[in-house]
């Protein structure tokens, strides 16, 4: 369950980048929908998708090195 130290920084960047991307994406999407700004809404949705992909990649990579499998 513990990530190796050689790729620890990469996993931390993916985790924090994913979380920040999801938070900013939610905010931009809400602002875009509220003010009916298509561009802001699209950027928000793209950031949400990017954050979800980064978090998914982090989880997949962590589970590949599971001692049970």
From TrEMBL:
<protein>
    <recommendedName>
        <fullName>LPXTG cell wall anchor domain-containing protein</fullName>
    </recommendedName>
</protein>
<keyword id="KW-0472">Membrane</keyword>
<feature type="transmembrane region" description="Helical">
    <location>
        <begin position="41"/>
        <end position="60"/>
    </location>
</feature>
<keyword id="KW-1133">Transmembrane helix</keyword>
<keyword id="KW-0812">Transmembrane</keyword>
<feature type="transmembrane region" description="Helical">
    <location>
        <begin position="12"/>
        <end position="35"/>
    </location>
</feature>
């Amino acid at each position: 369950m513990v990530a190796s130290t050689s790729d620890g920084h990469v996993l931390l960047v993916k985790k924090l980048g994913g979380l920040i991307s999801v938070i900013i994406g939610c905010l931009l999407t809400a602002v875009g929908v509220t003010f009916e700004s298509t561009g802001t809404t699209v950027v928000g949705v793209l950031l949400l998708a990017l954050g979800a992909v980064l978090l998914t990649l982090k989880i997949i990579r962590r589970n590949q090195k599971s001692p049970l499998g």
